[in-house]
């Protein structure tokens, strides 16, 4: 089930950047290569700290007037606008927060099991739509089933992009950006130690952002959970779990309750070498 976009939303971002340095600035401080974006195309990119930990994710697009937009449907725009503003020095960049005037929708996914990669952005009334098709608001249950990370859940400073299925938005060959050295080391030395995992449990959906326990220690973090529409109470969630616990088949639990099935979500490869 999906819900239509509400008349007003304080949980989406629509930032409009103008000036000759707008796209070069985003290219310089985020993980993906953006300089070749053509009007109407869209590409996800990440903003990390020097350790390669996640701070923000947004979809970047260029409109017909050469203005650059940063869009997301799961977090308000003020914090991202402030983050960008701190990186503007002598650059010709003006940042306008249009989040109140424009809502960010998401096109219905062709495959509910795949997170999907943004390709195009269109304007339907007062809603900017990422991808093709009618604008929808994906439910929390659908998002979890698709394995799509969200702000405040999997997109958090606790994790790096490779641990939460966002490696395809990291470009390894485009040059320096904040966090680039740390992310490069993780891939060079194969140092990624955790993976995004779909988990299930019985009973009511637990509170999120709590530990996942193994046999004798904490092995992960439950980041999302939603009730399943089954006769018996049950739930499905996302967790970031240490690889050795997944590979060894260690029994996992949250708040003392055993988890059922666990399914490691395939991690996309970064762009470049």
Give a verbal description of the structure.
With 273 residues, the chain is an alpha+beta fold. The chain has a domain of 138 residues: Aminomethyltransferase beta-barrel domains (Alpha-Beta Plaits), CATH 3.30.70.1400. Helix content is 14%, strand content 33%. The protein has 5 helices and 17 strands. The strands form 3 sheets. A 7-stranded antiparallel sheet has the order 16-15-12-13-14-11-17. It has a 5-stranded mixed sheet with strand order 1-10-7-9-8. The protein has a 5-stranded antiparallel sheet with strand order 3-4-5-2-6, covered by helices on one side. The protein is globular, with a radius of gyration of 19 Å. It starts with a strand and ends in a 9-residue tail after the last strand.
A few lines on this structure:
By secondary structure, the protein is an alpha+beta fold. 14% of the residues lie in helices and 33% in strands. The protein is globular and about 55 Å long.
Structural key phrases:
273 residues; alpha+beta; Alpha-Beta Plaits; seven-stranded antiparallel beta sheet; five-stranded mixed beta sheet; 5 helices; 17 strands; 14% helix; globular; disordered N terminus
